[in-house]
Amino acid sequence: MSYWEKTVEYMYVILLVNSGQLKLALPLAGKEERGAGDAVFFQGATLILVEFKANRNEIHKDVEDIFINFEGAKQKLSLFDGHHLIVFAKPTQEGKDLRLASQTYFGCTPVEVESTLCCGVEKLVFDRYLEELLAFKKPDGRSSSGVVSSDYDLVLGAVSGELRAAPLGEYVKRFAPNLAENLTQVDTPHSAPSGVHLPRPRG
Fold first, then answer.
1. What is the mean pLDDT of the chain?
2. Which terminus of the chain, N or C, has less C-beta within 10 A?
3. pLDDT of 90-138, one tens digit each?
4. For residue 189, is pLDDT > 80?
5. What is the DSSP letter of 202?
6. Among positive and negative, which fits the CA dihedral 103, 106, 109, 111?
7. How far apart are CA 155 and CA 73, in angstroms?
8. Long-range contacts: 18-23, Cβ < 8 Å, 24+?
9. With helix as H, strand as E and coil as C, how does 177-197 read?
10. Who's near 43: CB < 8 A, 6+ residues apart?
11. Can you tell me the distance from the alpha carbon of 109 to that of 200, in angstroms, rounded to the nearest whole number?
12. Which tens digits make up the pLDDT trace of 52-88?
């Protein structure tokens, strides 16, 4: 049986759509993907960051290529990565089908795939975490410019049920106006958010 990382990504999106959970999906590529992950998903007023892998063996296989100091990042962020997830696939016992599984990125805590969007955090917390994560990533050799959390506000995403694309910034202003002010804030902390406890995943 052959399948790829893209298979896992499609299975996950279909799962979210069929369950009525998906509101906005932002697939990432280039320097934005290298800095953060494969996609950002938005539900209500919270976001999750997802990295897709074909199988468990592919998890953290490329950390030496993308991290300046993976162990340092793990030590600093593993208590705050409840919304930063890896989604991968496992063959069924019969070996004729696939089922999805997920875990937190650094802490490796199992998360029920159907409940991943429940692990989301508000955008200000998301941005703080993202700035910390980006500080541990190596520069993308394909681009001379770096990437900061505010760059993701301009990334186009697919709006569920509307057959159109919209940047994260516009989506937040329309569907979560109470968070819109966060889009104009510049917040680049040098340590994990003080007093902020990200929700740990269930399971």
1. 77
2. N
3. 988 777 789 999 999 999 999 999 999 999 998 889 889 988 998 898 8
4. no
5. P
6. negative
7. 25
8. 19/114, 21/117, 22/117, 22/160, 23/159, 23/160, 23/175
9. HHHHHHHHCCCCCCCCCCCCC
10. 21, 22, 23, 117, 120
11. 9
12. 999 999 998 888 888 999 999 999 999 999 999 999 9
More confident residue, 195 or 160: 160
| Phi, psi angles (nearest 5°) of residue 46 | -130, 160
CA nearest neighbour of 120 among 36, 67, 48, 188: 48
Length of the chain (residues): 203
Nearest CA to 35 out of 48, 47, 51, 24 is that of: 51
Q: Evaluate if residue 2 carries a pLDDT over 50.
A: yes
For the range 39-43, what are the long-range contacts, defined as Cβ-Cβ under 8 Å and sequence gap of 24 or more? 39/9, 40/152, 40/155, 40/157, 40/168, 41/16, 41/116, 41/117, 41/120, 42/120, 42/157, 42/168, 42/171, 42/172, 43/117, 43/120
Here the tokens at position 47 are 């976001």
- Domain limits, the chain: 5-184
Integer Cα distance of 6 and 26 in angstroms: 15
Per-residue pLDDT at 115: 94
Whole-number pLDDT of residue 196: 38
Contacts of 172 by beta carbon, 8 Å cutoff, 6+ apart:
42, 123, 153, 179, 180, 182, 183
Residue linked to tokens 């030590």: 75
| HSE toward the beta carbon, residue 118, CA cutoff 13 A | 9
